[in-house]
């Protein structure tokens, strides 16, 4: 398939910050893709270019790939990767490369009269997939870098499984609204602000109180069989000078692991923790894996959607689950390779949004194509609802 034109326009993400939308023409049709951005980024993520840098880099890309014939998504991605020539996409920009990669994937699927997930599955995941729907990780209370409150933990998530996707989404929306009413009372009847991902943002007594509030509501609503709890500590955000500043105290990795273990002991429906330690503290990850062998210990800043990093930390028993964010690595093919590496290592995979999102729902197609174990898509409200709606479109036909 040939690319006949590529243009870029500036748009805005859910934080009101500028990002890019790629428009790619093949034949007489145009295809688009918009690119999200993260606030708490791992230091080894693909480089994000400013709009001015994107415009300059696109000139080089157009010269190299326009009118070329590509036989697959990977063929187009490989051309971009070779042209960039760097590990962190610092020559062309990971955001520009991803936008082109996703737009091309959509065009390639359309040329074959397929949905994007069908083309992705056929090219990257022809074996070992199932029709099961992923669990939905919904961030309903925000802290850390995503909120203006006193919580160190960045995300308190309700995880919905069990019923049909439509029923899960309906239950999550009802839960989110009821939680808002409870927190409004806690906030002296005042409206509760929300964080970057739509989760409620207010001060709590300590880092455990949100877990207790969520568990109490889950049990009160009779949802304990289908709802569970998960955390994203994003611990790099509260790591400084060799210590973790957590709950107003300076803690070593060992003491922080003990604190997490107490949380899991106190809440029987808490099952997963993402980035419990800083991105360079792999020993901390290994420690908590030994301390809590049944919990999901999820790598994100540690692994940055890199096949080699995923294998490295899986083999050292630092993680048993991994976050996949296409914009951390810069192309669809490399994100697919990261999923395959995780699967080969026996890890759970969670396809994730970013805190600065757009209405683009491509990650839901990637999740369906790869039979991901989970999708992490923020609160069931505002701009995040686009991904919930796409889940229902793909799974409840």
Describe the 3D structure.
- By secondary structure, this protein is α/β, with parallel strands linked by helices.
- The chain folds into two domains: 110 residues, 2-Layer Sandwich (Enolase-like, domain 1); 261 residues, Alpha-Beta Barrel (TIM Barrel), CATH 3.20.20.120.
- The strands form three sheets. Strands 4-5-6-10-11-12-13-14 form an eight-stranded mixed beta barrel, surrounded by five helices. The protein has a three-stranded antiparallel sheet with strand order 1-2-3, with helices on one face. A three-stranded antiparallel sheet has the order 7-8-9.
- Helix 2 packs antiparallel against helix 3 and helix 7 packs parallel to helix 8.
- The longest helix has 22 residues.
- It is globular, with a radius of gyration of 21 Å.
- The two termini are 30 Å apart.
- The relative contact order is 0.15.
- The model has no long low-confidence stretch (mean pLDDT 97).
- GO terms for molecular function: magnesium ion binding; phosphopyruvate hydratase activity.
- Pfam families: Enolase_C, Enolase_N.
């Amino acid at each position: 398939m040939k690319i006949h034109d590529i243009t870029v326009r500036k748009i805005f993400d859910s934080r009101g910050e500028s990002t890019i939308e790629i428009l790619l023409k093949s034949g007489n049709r145009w295809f688009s893709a918009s690119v999200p951005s993260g606030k708490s980024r791992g230091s080894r993520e693909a480089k994000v270019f400013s709009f001015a840098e994107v415009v300059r880099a696109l000139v080089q890309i157009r010269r190299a790939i326009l009118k070329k014939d590509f036989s697959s998504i990977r063929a187009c991605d490989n051309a971009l990767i070779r042209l960039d020539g760097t590990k962190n996409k610092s020559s062309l920009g990971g955001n520009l490369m991803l936008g082109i990669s996703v737009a091309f994937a959509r065009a390639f699927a359309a040329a074959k009269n397929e949905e994007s997930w069908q083309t992705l599955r056929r090219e990257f995941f022809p074996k070992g997939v199932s029709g099961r729907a992923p669990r939905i990780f919904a961030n309903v209370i925000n802290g850390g870098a995503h909120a203006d409150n006193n919580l160190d933990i960045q995300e308190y998530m309700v995880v919905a499984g069990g019923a049909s996707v439509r029923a899960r989404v309906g239950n999550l929306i009802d839960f989110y609204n009821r939680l808002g009413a409870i927190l409004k009372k806690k906030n002296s009847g005042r409206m509760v602000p929300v964080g970057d991902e739509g989760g409620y943002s207010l001060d709590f007594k300590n880092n455990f109180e949100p877990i207790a509030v969520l568990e109490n509501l889950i049990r009160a609503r009779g949802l304990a069989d289908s709802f569970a709890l998960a955390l994203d500590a994003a611990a790099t955000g509260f790591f400084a000078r060799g210590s973790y500043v957590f709950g107003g105290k300076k803690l070593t990795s060992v003491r922080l692991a003990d604190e997490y273990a107490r949380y899991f002991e106190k809440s029987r429906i808490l099952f997963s923790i993402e980035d419990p330690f800083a991105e360079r503290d792999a020993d901390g990850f290994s420690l908590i894996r030994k301390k809590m062998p049944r919990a999901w210990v999820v790598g994100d800043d540690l692994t940055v959607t890199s096949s080699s990093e995923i294998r490295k930390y899986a083999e050292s028993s630092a993680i048993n689950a991994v976050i996949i964010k296409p914009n951390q690595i810069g192309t669809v093919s490399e994100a697919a390779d990261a999923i395959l590496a995780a699967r080969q290592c026996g890890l759970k995979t969670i396809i994730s949004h970013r805190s600065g999102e757009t209405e683009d729902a491509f990650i839901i197609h990637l999740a369906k194509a790869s039979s991901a174990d989970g999708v992490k898509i923020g609160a069931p409200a505002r701009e995040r609802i686009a991904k919930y709606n796409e889940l229902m479109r793909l799974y409840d036909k």
